[in-house]
Write a structure and sequence with these properties.
The chain is mainly beta and 185 residues long. The chain is 0% helix and 42% strand. It contains no helices and twelve strands. A hairpin with a 5-residue loop joins strand 5 and strand 6.
């Protein structure tokens, strides 16, 4: 099985790119972010990620505008400082497809010198997605601009649904720097 990528409008999130390997489907926003807005079993159309389609969850960010939750998955910096943490990620994201199963999403650098790059790699044969976040902090010095980069990688592992039991609970096992979505019991 191979990974298929497609570009389409998704709800009120605008233009998105979807990756599908026949087992799982993942969608990312292009008009804001970088943000993963959709994740499901292929063909099931049941998104396991939260979507704030009504734009209920917002946070004022002073002169920079309003941060909107949108939903999905994104990199979040700590410690939380407003407006830096809540700087609106409402700008278009550049997207590079380096091969048929790897997306690199790059937003503009924030006024605080931060750039949040997301690299998404979908496995061709298994329900596995590797997400690498690069948080680049640009610091202005007298001699010019230097950059410090911090990478964090997470793997979204198998996503299965089972309707054998009326009571459904999700069980997960801790994984080092992994977000695991495991079989329902």
């Amino acid at each position: 099985m191979s990974v298929i990528s497609s570009k389409r409008i998704y709800k009120n999130f605008g233009e998105c790119i979807f990756l599908d390997n026949g087992i799982i489907t993942l969608g990312v926003t292009l008009e804001e972010g970088p943000r993963i807005i959709y994740f499901s079993l292929a063909g099931k159309r049941k998104n396991v990620l939260f979507e704030d389609t009504e734009r209920i969850f917002t946070e004022p960010a002073g002169k920079y505008g309003t941060w909107v939750a949108y939903g999905g998955h994104r990199l979040w910096c700590a410690p939380e400082v407003n407006p830096e943490t809540y700087y609106p990620d409402n700008s278009r994201v550049s997207c590079e497809i380096t091969d048929i199963y790897t997306l690199t999403l790059m937003p503009p650098v924030t006024p605080f010198g931060k750039e949040f790059t997301m690299i998404i790699e979908m496995n061709e044969a298994y329900p596995v997605v590797k997400i690498t976040h690069k948080n680049t902090q640009y610091i202005r010095e007298k001699s010019g601009v230097c950059a410090m980069v911090r990478d964090e990688s997470y793997t979204w592992r198998s996503l299965y649904y089972s309707y054998e039991h009326a009571e459904k609970r999700i069980s997960s096992q801790p994984c080092d720097k992994s977000l695991g979505l495991f079989r329902y019991k």
